[in-house]
Design goal:
5-stranded mixed β-sheet, zinc ion binding (chains A, B), about 200 residues, alpha/beta, binds zinc ion, homodimer, Dna Topoisomerase Vi A Subunit, Chain: A, domain 2, DNA binding (chains A, B), DNA repair (chains A, B), zinc (chains A, B)
Chain lengths: ~200, ~200
């Protein structure tokens, strides 16, 4: 099938989205071209604005279009409580679950020596630096309940325990070996409320 | 969940794609922002080019960025054979099935008096006009095998039969009541090869 150049380019562009194969891309292209060009133009503008204008928060390392993200600059949140997560998707999942009003720090994944991901690569020194001069009394180590996530929590706990900071993990209820991002909000809210203190 | 404006706009823009709900849109936005900004920029460029630069072929009414589409301007195709379809998706489906080397005409759907879709609305006068001065000897009425599609084929057959043009329908093999667009290529190629002549 030889599509004309702009239609070909559109189908190829849509295949750059995760989970979109050739048939789905064709269906999307047809929908936009035949039924909703306004939606196509809006998406183009939104993509440009986001790809060029969204960076990372200097404090918590979450996606942000300001130096300091909305969660870090919100004066209504509890500075004494810091939740450490291993991805941006997890921040969104916890926020959407509700029930947490502290601050966040986003690691770049979890420790995985096989993949060359050590403390530096995933941002643990940046986590410690971000805590300096702040009155954090509890750190919730909300990494995934996987081998790597547990190892990451354990490693950070070893660094923070000498500072007398209360350390906690999310309560179980989260399926073992599962990914935080895909847990339903209710379970996640429950796990947050029932978080266990590390001794 | 209060996303920052550009991230909110991106998620909303992605929801303009068919079949993309809130969770999928978030996952797509994260993928583009965190893993592939190049793909996001390419999609933006492709959308702009396509939404503004793709119109309709003046002869066959299929999507085209030129006055005459590639299929109409290809000198290697058989001018004596005209396949009438009820959507652009059907043109792509027939082309992808292979085995057809004639020309096309794309109706805007099928006759549906209840919905106010008469011959004028779906482009039947334009079909007749496009055939003037051309040596079409056979018209394949490849509308869907639904009540409306059959009625549309029947209506067009009534107009063309007096002109001595051979009329055909796609061979069965296509599931009754089904949509052409979703039939697999093999079945579609088979149905084309075994098309039946209307008496
Ligand atoms: Zn922040
Ligand atoms: Zn054409």
């Amino acid at each position: 099938m030889s599509f004309s150049p702009r239609i070909r380019q559109l189908i190829d562009g849509l295949r750059g989205l995760p989970g979109v194969g050739p048939k789905t891309a064709q269906r999307m292209a047809l929908h936009l071209l035949e039924r909703d060009r306004g939606a196509g133009r809006q998406l183009a503008v939104a993509l440009e604005a986001a790809m060029d204008g969204v960076g990372y928060c200097q404090r918590c390392r979450s996606l942000s279009e300001e130096d300091l993200c909305r969660l870090c600059s919100d004066p209504g949140r509890d500075d004494s409580l810091l939740c450490v997560l291993q991805s941006q998707a997890d921040v969104w999942a916890v926020e959407q679950a509700g029930g947490f009003n502290g601050r966040y720090f986003v690691l770049k994944g979890s420790l995985s020596p096989i993949d060359g991901l050590g403390p530096e690569e995933i941002g643990i020194p940046a986590l410690l630096a971000s805590m300096q001069g702040r009155a954090v009394t509890e750190v919730i180590l909300a990494t995934n309940p996987t081998v790597e996530g547990e190892a990451t929590a354990h490693y950070i706990a070893g660094l923070l325990r000498p500072k007398g900071i209360r350390l906690s993990r999310l309560a179980h209820g989260i399926p073992l070996g599962g990914e935080l991002e895909f847990v339903d909000g209710g379970t996640l809210a429950h796990a947050l409320a029932g978080r266990t203190v590390l001794d």
